[in-house]
Specification:
heterotrimer, A alpha/beta, B alpha+beta, C mainly alpha, A: alpha/beta, Glutaredoxin, 5-stranded mixed sheet, B: alpha+beta, 6-stranded antiparallel sheet, 20 helices, globular
Chain lengths: 177, 652, 156
């Protein structure tokens, strides 16, 4: 039995350790969007604040936008709200809200009380648009380019840091500040 | 004061471990018997202080000392006392303390039950265990101390233990499991000691065997308990999910099974030494890998402790040093010399080696499936999932091959067997197995079913061949009774364990194929039929428990008009954690379980969503597991392990 | 901040069994529903399938599966629908493609390799035994030489 063969277990182990080490810096629960570089799904859903108006994909395309998935039952969304207000003031980019599986009255009150950073809100009561988008919780934020193609998804609250990262992405898409 | 005492005791234990890790090993290398003699008292000292530390943490729980962070996070004044104490291992820090405590216990045991062992061997074994202990106690003190305090302001009451853990299962499952995980460190230490000393004779195998068998038995019992606990606790009637943490316990058990068979061959025949050494290292490495997977946050699991990549990094370093070091030692010092005896193509040695291959491939399959999502993600391939469909598809066929091979091995002889001889012994069991396998689905079920045929045939094969071998023992015996007494506990243990495998296989086969389940809406007075039983919903009422309130349903079960049982599933709302939990109600039976769980209340008419399960032969699963562990324990009572050897130990 | 999101998820995922009361007229569809919801992963739970999870998203996905089954969609269509939205992550049975080849074929390859190694080892062991058999016997002259050497030692 050649001695070299006895080194195989050690070599295999070192290879495994390398992967385990890499694994330590990966978050196993962060799910990348399946729609990256794919078009935003078509939809026809009521607007939140104007229940007679129907919104479609045409309302979203034309320039790069952020689509923010939020709901009143989501405590982190409450946290994120101030940051969104700041972003709406600072930047020219439109933030479109996707009110996910929520109640119209509660959502309207929330916006009245806390301020409205959104250009308009899609009232996805049943969550079907969310399903088409691959939403699995709130808050989530999608960055779309001018053609309505999904370029980036952020899971969780947007902080100062993440806003800086997103701004870099937006610049590469060519929105004037 | 007491928690600080606990921390201090831990520091002292670390000190002793450090000395234990260095002095006796140095003494063995330089043949200094005084230094080697230190091993035993050091082991005792280490144990004493680990015990003190453990008791201190227990005390903090018992008196509701919520100034201790760990107690505040895992306990509550309303928690019943048995759970307050079990909460010691309900979280990461405390369970790690349990791990280290059990390690010191095994170290003590080795130091006490080793009069047979030459001093230098004992010194090395205890020394290696000291190295492992140093690693773990350092880990505890550096990153995961259970004695940290919330001072000066601490909560008035604790955050309560997770309701899922407030159960008998918590009291028994983790300690059993850890006894097994940690117990494999003994086999590991023996292997390393053998490699260090160059003394790789059959005696090493003989010393290792009882320790390995006990550890294996504990691990098996732990896994069985875990499966049983998940079944009745989680509310959906499953018993194995191929979850990463479950896999982390199954892998060392599989390799441990290979190891204990390989040790038997090495002891009896002096062959497979390198392979056995490698298996001993592999089994404990899998224990350590399991520790890493569960505590580092690298994999997602319902069972995982609160994850922290920083801790994960520490454990990874521990892994690199222990496993990397031992595999390096193995590569340099494992014997590449041919062993003493040889064996033929068709022999018990050969067949046991083939069985080893099956077992190791099964373990590697589980490892591959568990780690593959991580591998792909690390290589930038995105996120994938590997779950039950994969594991079942690959595991079951290989296990079936193993079971068939088990039967064949039983009929083989050491060194050389003839095909004719085996055919003679195996023909009858083969015929019986196939006949039973074919008939069973017709009589029990409603027609032929291939999976049932396969499962029943193979299980009957294992039992029939075991009985055939048993019968063969009496061929030349004068009297049955004397022969029964003459057969060693080792042999009885083996037969019991092998039958346990068959019993588990029968349980798995039948519960997978013939179980029935229905989810439905039941209002007051509604009747439902499942598997011949009638279930009538008699409404739900509010009840109060120690630290919860519950909606308790009443369901009357009848079979052909005759009353069978009344079941009371609960939907509990725990006061402190404000979480809900389903407490299923089970009518347990040897040949079937009736399992009821309540879901959500539906509507105002008092209707509830109710799940009804019929689970045939599910208890056989765990019975088989128990038989296997009992078999393992039985082998340890063999006379040859208790005899004080006055013979010269054979040298390599 | 991911931690906060994680904490939020943990808080709302309660530990109780998900019991859905979907009515199926077709028994085979009910069977397919059970299989599909058991083999698909809840996108945000800690490793649970759709069948056992009570998370909101799991309920939505089960609802969608139910609707698609009632609309006479095939299993492949349903699976593709889910994967298009949530990625391969949502499948508990990894697809058989180039990326997963090692996963599916690895164990079988290993098994064959292992058995081959056993055969090779036994053969080389037996061959060595054969080689040992061919040690020539000593002839008369050599036997005498051997005796002389042994006798010399005895004298010392």
């Amino acid at each position: 039995m050649p001695r070299v063969l006895l080194f195989i277990p050690l070599v295999l182990f070192i290879t495994l350790s390398f992967f385990l080490w890499k694994g330590l810096s990966i978050d196993p629960r962060a799910l990348p969007s399946a729609l990256i570089d794919k078009p935003f799904p078509d939809f026809k859903v009521e607007a939140l604040l104007q229940s007679e108006r129907f919104l479609t994909k045409a309302d979203i395309v034309g320039r790069p936008v952020l689509v923010n998935v939020w709901a009143t039952w989501c405590p982190s969304c409450r946290q994120e709200h101030e940051q969104l207000l700041r972003m709406a003031q600072e930047s020219k980019i439109k933030i479109i809200g996707l009110n996910y599986k929520d109640e119209r009255q509660a959502a309207t009150q929330w916006l009245q009380q806390l301020g409205n950073p959104y250009a308009f809100n899609i009232y996805d009561e049943a969550g079907m648009l969310g399903l088409d988008l691959g939403v699995y919780g709130a808050p989530e934020t999608y960055l779309l380019d001018a053609q309505g193609v999904v370029r980036h998804r952020h899971i969780g609250v947007i902080t100062e840091q993440t806003w800086l990262d997103i701004q870099l992405l937006i610049e590469s898409l060519g929105v004037n500040k | 004061m007491i928690p600080e005492l606990g921390e201090f005791a831990l520091i002292l234990a670390l000190g002793f471990s450090l000395i234990l890790a260095v002095i006796p090993l140095y003494g063995a290398a330089s043949l200094n018997s005084l230094w080697m003699e230190y091993a035993r008292p050091l082991a005792k000292a280490q144990f004493t202080f680990m015990l003190i530390s453990f008791i201190c943490l227990g005390y903090a729980f018992a008196v509701d000392d919520f100034s201790v962070q760990y107690v505040a996070n895992h306990s509550n004044s309303q928690l019943p006392m048995q759970f307050k104490l079990s909460a010691i291992w309900g979280g990461h820090e405390g369970s790690l303390l349990l791990w280290a405590f059990i390690l010191s216990g095994w170290t003590l045991a080795v130091s006490l039950f080793s009069r047979d062992l030459p001093l230098d061997m004992l010194a090395r074994v205890l020394g290696v265990m000291g190295i492992i202990a140093t690693g773990f106690i350092s880990f505890l003190l550096w990153t995961s101390s259970p004695f940290l305090r919330y001072l000066p302001r601490f909560p008035a009451d604790g955050a309560d233990l997770n309701p899922l853990l407030q159960d008998f299962g918590l009291i028994v499952h983790p300690p059993m499991l850890y006894m097994g995980y940690v117990g494999f460190s003994v086999a590991f230490s023996f292997a390393i000691a053998a490699l260090l000393s160059g003394r790789l004779d059959a005696a090493w195998a003989r010393w290792s065997r009882p320790w390995t068998n006990i550890a294996w038995a504990f691990l098996g019992a732990g896994i069985t308990l875990g499966s049983w606990w998940a079944y009745y606790e989680l509310g959906w009637g499953g018993w194995w999910f191929w979850d990463p943490v479950e896999n982390a316990s199954l892998m060392p058990w599989l390799v441990g099974t290979a190891l204990l068979h390989s040790l038997a061959v090495t002891e009896k025949r002096g062959v497979f030494k390198s392979w056995t050494l490698l298996l001993a290292i592999f089994a404990f490495s899998l224990s350590l890998l399991g520790t890493f997977l569960v505590r580092s946050g690298v994999l997602t699991s319902v069972h995982a402790f609160a994850s922290d990549p920083e801790r994960g990094f520490f454990i990874l370093v521990l892994l690199l040093l222990t496993i990397g070091g031992s595999l390096t030692l193995y590569a340099f010092k494992a014997p590449s010399v041919k062993s003493e005896s040889s064996f033929g193509w068709l022999s018990r040695e050969m067949l046991l080696l083939i069985n080893n291959v099956f077992l190791v491939v099964m373990a590697v399959t589980v490892l591959l499936g568990t780690l593959y999502p991580l591998l792909i993600d690390a290589l930038g391939g995105g996120k994938i999932s590997v779950g039950p469909p994969y594991f079942n598809a690959l595991f079951v066929p290989i296990m079936s091959l193993l079971a068939i091979s088990m039967g064949v091995s039983g009929a083989s002889r050491w060194r050389q067997t003839t095909v004719v001889g085996m055919k003679q012994q195996l023909l009858m069991p083969a015929i019986i197995s196939v006949v039973v396998g074919v008939i069973f689905p017709f009589t029990y079920g409603d027609g032929f079913n291939f999976r049932v045929f396969l499962g029943i045939t193979i299980s009957t094969w294992v039992i029939a061949t075991a009985l055939q071998e048993f019968k063969g023992k009496f061929r030349n015996a004068d009297s049955m009774m004397t022969k029964l007494g003459q057969l060693s506990p080792s042999y009885y243990g083996m037969v019991l364990a092998h039958i346990g495998v068959a019993v588990t296989a029968i349980g798995i086969t039948l519960v997978s194929v013939y179980s029935e389940e229905r989810d439905m809406r039941m209002a007051l007075g509604d009747k439902v039929e499942l598997a011949g039983y009638q279930f009538e919903f008699k409404g739900a009422k509010r009840v109060k428990g120690a630290n919860f309130t519950a909606d308790e349903g009443t369901i009357v079960v009848t079979l052909d008009g005759e009353s069978v049982v009344t079941l009371h599933p609960q939907k509990r709302h725990y006061n402190v954690k404000r979480s809900m939990m389903t407490e299923a109600s089970i009518d347990a039976g040897l040949f079937r379980d009736l399992y009821l769980a309540m879901g959500e209340p539906l509507g105002d008419d008092g209707a509830w969503a109710v799940r009804v399960h019929y689970k045939p032969y599910v208890r056989w699963l765990w019975l088989g597991g128990l038989l296997m562990s009992l078999g393992g324990i039985l082998t340890v009572f063999d006379k040859r392990y208790r005899r004080k050897s006055t013979n010269e130990v054979a040298h390599a | 901040m991911v931690r906060f999101f994680v904490v939020f998820l943990v808080l709302i995922s309660n530990a109780y069994a998900a019991i859905d009361t979907y009515e199926f007229k077709d028994k085979s569809k009910e069977h397919r529903f059970h299989d599909l919801s058991a083999d698909m992963r809840c996108p945000k739970c800690q490793n649970q399938n759709l069948a056992d999870s009570n998370a909101a998203i799991a309920q939505d996905l089960k609802q969608k599966i139910y609707l698609m089954l009632e609309a006479d969609k095939t299993d492949t269509e349903i699976v593709d629908y889910m994967v298009a939205r949530y990625g391969d992550f949502v499948l508990y049975e990894p697809r058989f493609n180039a990326q997963n080849a090692v996963l599916w074929l690895g164990p079988i390859v290993l098994l064959v390799l292992g058995l081959l190694m056993v055969i090779w080892l036994t053969r080389s062991r037996n061959k060595a035994k054969q080689d040992n058999k061919s040690i020539p016997e000593l002839d008369a002259k050599q036997q005498q030489q051997l005796q002389d050497v042994l006798n010399k030692d005895n004298k010392v």
